[in-house]
Amino acid sequence: MVNASLNGISGVLILVGHSFIHRGKIAAHRACMIAAVCSSSIFLACYLYYHAHAGVIRFHGTGWIRPLYFAMLTSHTILAASLLVLVPTALTFALRGRFERHKAVAKWTYPIWLYVSFTGVLIYFIVYRWFV
User: Fold this and answer.
1) How many other CB atoms are found less than 10 A from the CB of residue 83?
2) pTM
3) Pair 113, 14: CB distance under 8 Å
4) Contact of 117 with 9, CB cutoff 8 Å
5) Is 9 in contact with 120 (CB distance < 8 Å)?
6) For residue 58, how far is the Cα from the chain centroid?
7) What is the 3-state secondary structure (H, E, C) of 95-127?
8) pLDDT, tens digit, 9 for 90 and up, residues 9-53
9) CB of 2 within 8 A of CB of 123?
10) Run of H or E residues at 34
11) 50 Cβ contact partners less than 8 Å away, ≥ 6 residues apart
12) Cα 43 off chain centre by
């Protein structure tokens, strides 16, 4: 539940931060995005710790949900790995004041990060709550 909560918090912060930049509220955007990076970083540390100790978690769902779940999990995992490069790159450009480059990277990072955050929450519910 901790991991799903951290993912959900990241997703909300990303959405709010995105809305701030579109309204020209740069300081609020910066605060939200730094908080989203922190939340995502804490999530990653907790996720790696959990899976190092819990091992592989088997999905017990059957029928129509099984291929849907594995398609979602595959896309989630691949895109999450891409964020290990995209997020630090976008953050570095922003913190160095290279806003045109930041904007170019953020254009790709934003939808991927949002997708990964919310599918992470959905995967949690599918595996641990709905199809146990």
Assistant:
1) 19
2) 0.85
3) yes
4) no
5) no
6) 22
7) HCCCHHHHHHHHHHHHHHHHHHHHHHHHHHHHH
8) 999 999 999 999 999 999 999 999 999 999 999 999 998 898 888
9) no
10) helix 26-54
11) 3
12) 9
* Cα distance between the two ends of the chain: 15
Give 4's contacts (C-beta < 8 A, 6+ positions apart): 120, 121, 124, 125
Tokens of 126: 């599918």
Could you write out the DSSP letters of every residue in 63-107?
A: TTHHHHHHHHHHHHHHHHHHHHHHHHHHHHHHHTT-HHHHHHHHH
Residue 54 is predicted with a pLDDT of 84
Q: What is the DSSP letter of 129?
A: I
Contact 38, 6 (CB under 8 A): no
What is the rounded average pLDDT of the residues 58-62?
86
Is 132 a residue whose pLDDT tops 80?
A: no
CB 16 within 8 A of CB 32: yes
- Contacts of residue 101, Cβ cutoff 8 Å, sequence gap at least 6: 93
Residue type, 89: T
